[in-house]
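User: ok so my PI wants both of these folded by tonight, can you help

Assistant: No problem, let's get them done. Here's the first:
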Amino acid sequence: MEKNIKLIALDLDGTLVNSKETVSERNIDAILRAKEQGLQVVLSTGRSLSRCRHIADALGESSYIVTINGGEIYNGRFELVEQNKLKKEHVRRLWELKEEHGLYFWSSTVQGLYNTQNPFEGEVEGYDWLKFGYDIEDNHVRQIILDELNRFDSFEITNSSPTNIEINPAGVNKAAALEKVCEWLELKMDEVMAVGDSMNDIAMIHEAGFGVAMGNAQEKVKEEADWVTLTNDEDGVAHAIEKVLKNL
């Protein structure tokens, strides 16, 4: 690898987090060693801050944290520095699709996290929506929903697993968020190694100087990456970081 990497961007689910929902000691050790060598390590996840702060705390201080696929960016003191909301009329249409097809939904809003099992109260428009999602086991139904969503140019449509659909406002993705982080840190995207496994990671893997797909990544992600590391159950993140550290 010939790139001069100065920032490592890490997805969580399916990447840094293993199938036991934990972060391995080897991964933690590799991240801490990277930080000791002066590299920036930034979590870049579809999760909200409330669902990833415990991991961020375990990894020590970071300059920024990208959450909700770029819907929110926080600084190292967990202060909000960027927020991107879905338009209320767009959420109304997403909700109508959920109702029409009887879909399982989940969401990140400024007011909290809601899903089919933990529904919100009141009108859809009464909330500030950052991300809207469906989980659809049926391939045919999922394709119908994707076809409908792709008729709009208002949405950034990705996934974090083969059965779900994640919807952010158009232009809001992990790559766009990392470009802002790089600007704030006076770095270039060419100096970033981005590691992920799902469709919501493709943008940052494509735009980074060195894009890495996990061994367990979806095939489209592997095709987009410069390199494929080991799986999330084989400490693939540590394996990728060690490749960078050898280059320093």
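One down. Here's the second:
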Amino acid sequence: MRFTIPTILTLLRIVLIPVFVVFYYLPVEWAHLATTVIFASAAVTDWLDGYLARRLQAHSPFGAFLDPVADKLMVTTALVFIVDSNPTAFNGFWMALPAAIIIGREITISALREWMAELGATAAVAVSMLGKIKTTAQMAALLLLIYQEPLAGLPTALVGFALLYVAAVLTLWSMVRYMRAAWPVLLVRESSEL
């Protein structure tokens, strides 16, 4: 197996998950800052490994498999911890709702992409600009919710909470678009098997 620079960056993102977990629960004042820096580093490696894979023509089947896995593991971990940090009935529900939407969508689209790959129709579920905007809103929301402390008068937790709902709406919208794009292929395959 050939480890390209993008694949090494993707593996680094996975290695950062347990580090993120440890720092998230450290009982020290700077824990929020440390976990924010760790999450931001993971987000930067996500962008960087994609950029380098294109720039260096360093694509590999293992990297193509591992990249979305690393993304989903880090985002899901952050979402679970953020929900855990807001356990009261009202706050917990309103925090858990967008988290469940985002995690549910990721599972659904991953399964759809795998199925479409088996049908040889991966172009129908390729990453779109809407997906990239959704990812940007999601990452910004998570960074602000992890940090939590006001920043230059900005209520980061409140802005992060609002952005999490923006990300959840974009998540549902992008999922509907993926499903609509894939539906004709799935119908043709289903009818050909009857």
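The mean pLDDT is 85. Residues 127 and 178 are 9 Å apart (CA to CA). Good luck tonight!
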